[in-house]
Amino acid sequence: MTGKHLQMVEELNFLLLEGIEVATKEGSTRIYFTLGLLLGDNEALNNASGFMEDPNATIYCRLCKMRKQENQKNCPLRDEFMRTPQQYVTDGFQNQKQTGVKENSIWNLVLVFHVVKNFCQDIAHDLLEGVCKYGMQHILYYLICSSNKILSLDELNAKLKSFNYEKNGFSNRPPLLRYDEINKKKKLHMSESEMHTFILIFPMLVEDIVEGGINIENEIWQYFSVLRQIMDICFAKSLRTELIDILDSLVNQHHNLYLKLFNDPLKLKFHNMKHYSLVIKMSGPLSHLNLLRFESKHRELKAIAISTTSRINPCHTIAVKEQLRLCHCLLGKHGLPPKFELGHGYNLECASLSTHFNITQDALSIDKFSGPWLDVKWVDINGIDYNIGSVVVLDVNPDGFLEFGKILNILANEDQHVLFIYEKLVAQSFNEEIHAYEIVNSNQITFSLAENLLSPFLAIHHYLSDGRDIVSLRHAV
Ligand SMILES: [Zn+2]
After folding, report:
1. What is the DSSP string of 331-363?
2. What is the domain range of residue 90?
3. Which of 83, 84, 188, 240 has its Cα between 20 and 30 A from that of 201?
4. What separation in Å is there between the alpha carbon of 244 and the centre of ligand 1?
5. Are 155 and 283 in a shared domain?
6. 67 C-alpha to ligand 1 centroid (Å)
7. Considering its fold, how many domains does the chain have in total?
8. CA–centroid distance, residue 183 to ligand 1 (Å)
């Protein structure tokens, strides 16, 4: 504990008790702040919260005192093992191997905050970097290397190579797989984002064996299906409460199948998943706690470190440059402007729109539709790349089926309003084996503003080998 740390605690407490005065158009307002969550990966949070940092420690979890041996066998969580602020204090005086508490964290001096009530889990490292990699290693080994040899690696790599990533808005395409990393069950060489893409498209790559050789009764595929359902819930931007309860039983099912099929003890990251439903109830959807955004921020700092020639005190250099950047934002009064980029296109007169695209004049009379318009090939809105041919989620129809739209034209005006013109696709059934909707073209042309979509995220569109049209969601909506 240093003087600087104490100063930080004092400032946080000052913000809570005294607040700051902010001048607004309506007059002066006092705003009070409270520390809600500490975010970080497992090691960083354990360090900051005074817990054991070694993932092999007998008791490692920040939220409960379940032992490593129990976690490896998927023993159920027990209420009496959940940590409390009172117990944390007494635990600190005992043998740290028995309690997992190393020291009293300075964060506990922040008012209305305690590290054992810091309901945060990191899905980027737990799932993408951990559980997904372990699970996919085993699945690929079973499909490619075991005596079954159901799948050829060359075929899988050919499909990985030819998948239409651009149309589906994937900027991180997974690398081709190597036989030695699968045969020796080494950790797959993929970044977190590449692993996410791989899991999302995997059923489409192996659709012929899933519907042929491996069927839904096969437990290996059942395992993948459960993992994929967990991912859908964990990466959702908003959640219905019933999905939170389903998550608990899915995690339990996932762990039991993993133990049964792969004869591999559960690691620490598997245990963290057992707290996911509690964390969602206390802190909201896990995708909002995802550390990938923070890791992206590291890139800016790394760029500063690389671009400076001084090696005297790189941390100081980075801190000064980062503060200058922040000052520039504050003085220029531009915080985080929404990202908006357009591809090349040609001008369209507003009057010609209705005839050109068969849009009713009523629609064009909306203020936001005023011209001149640009007919473009792609648009990037807040990091989501919409292309001609991309599929988006439009709505839920009165029968409860999702409606999708395949983008035919993208129109944008000077006010950065974007109008998509679609071919409407209707989901007919959900194919559980491929984890995707089978869709039919309604032969209906429709349109809507980008801001009115049911979900701004692109759906994943793919043609199966027999010509069927399928669409899968990136996460639950
Ligand atoms: Zn725990």
Report:
1. HHT--SPPPEEE--EEEE-HHHHHHHHT--HHH
2. 3-117
3. 240
4. 17
5. yes
6. 9
7. 4
8. 33
